[in-house]
Amino acid sequence: MRVIVALGGNAVLRRDERPDASTQLANVRTAVRTLAGLAGRHELVITHGNGPQVGMLAVQSASDPGLSRPYPFDALGAQTQGLLGYWIQQALQNALPGRQVLAMVTQTLVSAVDPAFAAPSKFVGRAYDREEAEKLAAEHGWTVKQDGGQWRRVVPSPAPQRVVETRLIRRMMGEGVIVVCAGGGGIPVVRDERGRLTGVEAVVDKDLTTALLAEALDCDAFLALTDVPHVLRGFGTPAESPIRHTTPHELRALDFPAGSMGPKVEAVCRFVETTGDMAAIGRLDQAQRILDGTAGTIVTPNGRWPLTSTL
Ligand SMILES: Nc1ncnc2c1ncn2[C@@H]1O[C@H](COP(=O)(O)OP(=O)(O)O)[C@@H](O)[C@H]1O
Ligand SMILES: NC(=O)OP(=O)(O)O
User: Which residues surround ligand 2 with Cβ inside 6 Å?
Assistant: First the structure.
């Protein structure tokens, strides 16, 4: 099977952890144990989040007295692709001697007139209490929003339209290379009327970009891997219960929070609706069990996995 895996931000940096390089690298090495197992059985493409990291770089840039203005988010997104791509690539090379691994810097095309530019929604960086968040917002001109019990900065997150380097990713896969790409949803760029690309101030949702790429690369399965074993019905209520096997239709009838589970559910539904293949949301360390059908929230056109006829 050709499998695309979107590695959640939580896999690299948990909310309760300090963002030291050593902590993130240790988490990447743990994540890669699972990914290396998948690569032994399947053709694998890996994408990853960058919310915590891109927010941290933005804070550093905003507080640098030597700069006349902070670095724009396309540049910060490129930095996170380089850093996380490097860690993932090296950990995979060490885990899979003899396999070719390539972390690519990739751009994601968005529309310059996407309404998301006027309505920031993507959480980046660490969480603050309300007072601190509002103080930082006033100081730096940020928009902040509530994320669970805390507050975080939000930035525009336009819809991904195409991964610019899709053909090159496909070519590398054809050579047997394990490709790491579309990190942080890809560096957001727009194309002008002369075909030239320019970066824009945004952070694209990595699950939505992964769905797009999964389709463009003819993947058989799309796994959105995070820190929860299932999507929960009634999340946060006493009646919450895991959704195990489902359809896009059933999932779309439920409500999910915009900053976290919402885009994941939207991404897996789109992939299944467009391709008729399988997508799933679940815990990173259960990735192979998800593909076997014994873990995670598995989404297929008829709610069955492995796919069987309903006739
Ligand atoms: N209905 C739900 N079922 C399960 N988790 C949910 C649900 N709604 C929100 N969440 C939250 O979504 C989080 C995963 O989303 P997110 O933090 O964006 O993941 P990642 O950064 O790993 O991609 C979970 O840790 C959980 O707190
Ligand atoms: N860019 C992005 O979607 O990052 P997270 O998954 O870390 O939020």
Answer: 8-9, 49-51, 184-185, 203, 205-206
Question: pLDDT (tens digit, 9 = 90+) per residue, 147-158?
Answer: 878 999 999 999
Pocket test for ligand 1, best of 48, 84, 226 (most atoms within 8 A of CB): 226
Mean pLDDT across the chain, nearest whole number?
95
Non-local CB neighbours of 196 within 8 Å, separated by 6+ positions: none
What separation in Å is there between the alpha carbon of 260 and the centre of ligand 1?
5
Distance from C-alpha of 126 to C-alpha of 116, rounded to nearest angstrom: 22
The alpha carbon of 309 and the centre of ligand 2 are apart by a number of angstroms equal to 35
**Which residues does a 6 A CB cutoff place in the pocket of ligand 1?**
8-10, 49, 226-228, 231-232, 235, 256-257, 260-261
Active-site residue list: 9-10, 122, 206, 264
Q: Over the stretch 256-290, which tens digit does the pLDDT of each residue have?
A: 988 789 999 999 999 999 999 999 999 999 999 99
Q: Which residues, 6+ apart, have CB-to-CB distance to 115 below 8 Å?
A: none
Tell me whether 0.95 is exceeded by the ipTM. yes
b/e sequence 197-230, b meaning 16+ C-beta within 10 Å = eebbebbbbbbbbbbbbbbebebbbbbbbbebbb
* Cα–Cα separations (whole angstroms), residue 206 to 9, 32, 121, 139: 10, 18, 14, 29
Kindly identify the ligand whose nearest atom is closest to the C-alpha of 186.
Answer: 2
No. of helices (H) and no. of strands (E), the chain: 10, 17
Contacts (Cβ under 8 Å, ≥6 apart) of 167: none
Predicted structure pTM score: 0.96
